[in-house]
UniProtKB/TrEMBL annotation:
NCBIfam families: ackA. It comes from Bradyrhizobium ontarionense. The gene is ackA. This is Acetate kinase. The lineage of its organism: Bacteria, Pseudomonadati, Pseudomonadota, Alphaproteobacteria, Hyphomicrobiales. Substrate binds at residue 93. Catalyzes the formation of acetyl phosphate from acetate and ATP. Can also catalyze the reverse reaction.
Amino acid sequence: MTVRHILTLNAGSSSIKFALFEGETEPAECVRGQIEGLGTIAPHLEAERNGAKIADERLDPARAADHETALGVVLAVLERVIGRTAVEAVGHRIVHGGIEFTRPVVLDQVSLEKLDRLNPLAPLHQPHNLSGVRAAHRAFPDALQVGCFDTAFHRSHPWVNDTYALPREFYDEGVRRYGFHGLSYEYVVARMKETAPLYEQGRVVVMHLGNGASMCAIRDGQSIGSSMGFTALDGLPMGTRCGQLDPGVVLYLLQEKGMTPQAITDLLYTRSGLKGLSGLSQDMRELEAAGTPEAEQAIAYFVDRIRRELGAMAAVLSGLDAVVFCGGIGEHAWRIRARVCDGFDWLGIELDDARNRAGDGVISSDRSRARVFVVNTNEEMMIARHTARLLGEQSNL
Ligand SMILES: Nc1ncnc2c1ncn2[C@@H]1O[C@H](COP(=O)(O)OP(=O)(O)O)[C@@H](O)[C@H]1O
Ligand SMILES: CC(=O)OP(=O)(O)O
Ligand SMILES: [Mg+2]
């Protein structure tokens, strides 16, 4: 029997991550790579095959000026690496599934057109996710194209955590607290089931802190609340997004400053957050190294909003058994983890300094009532599992 190959594409706001999996039932990763720093002056490509580096280079910014150009680089790398290997399916991270797409689906023309309509609700992601589907279809015309949605994991939200206090018809037409980063949360829950089953059943707050950042309150493995809402703008401040904002500010920008909807979109999605506050960079590595007062204030605001959200989520969960850090910042920035957890002993959190600096697995002390973990999230693995299942179902038809 020939081995099945599944390719996964994950277009984030500052990166494209890709991976190739092989295997009949449980997919095993054989190639993984990413281009990070899209749209910055220093984009970087790295890739490995079975753990060995096959690419590690700074890219000419013109080759990663936007997602579409960078995707061309990714497809060229893949062609070099996998040659004529048949790819049976391509699994895509699609950030917004709206009301209708609540689980992974095989994509066709009709579903793509419906998903195109959600572009305005996730302008940093959705158009790139969908152009990834179209490019993959051109590159692998015989492969099944599967869409896996960031919003799907959060459909278990109880109504109070799913609605806004607007007249009811808005909820009915889809103005809801969808929540995002769902593939990452789903992976973390699956990982905890394997390695820390006691906590998987408990009251867990997961922090996905990357260029996009959100937090999720999880009970019994299900999302009961997210810091993100109708769009991926709400909640925590991010690389370039503002996070929680009084809607009155938007009215002020429209009415008093005469800004157009496009100018406001640009401001809130691409000029705010860490970049806007620091006046320097959206990248936590650069802010930590800079040490300017503005960079310090940007970090302080980021940490403060995470701490507020942690307190709120512990209240929603009626207590706390575990906290998980993941995403580019959550996995690598030990100083941020220390600042987030500082003084939370009243919630039962106590970090072990050496474990936190090492940043792998459990980072809380043995005395800590709540356990704190760092998990290297793997959205690609989650996409591959969903895609393998749908591929299996299709071949049984
Ligand atoms: N070693 C590090 N120290 C601090 N921050 C880091 C480090 N590595 C990555 N980051 C942060 O993680 C971000 C990327 O996170 P990631 O989750 O990969 O991005 P995306 O949201 O595009 O998927 C970078 O913009 C940077 O702020
Ligand atoms: C939803 C979101 O913000 O995703 P990312 O962190 O990958 O940009
Ligand atoms: Mg991401």
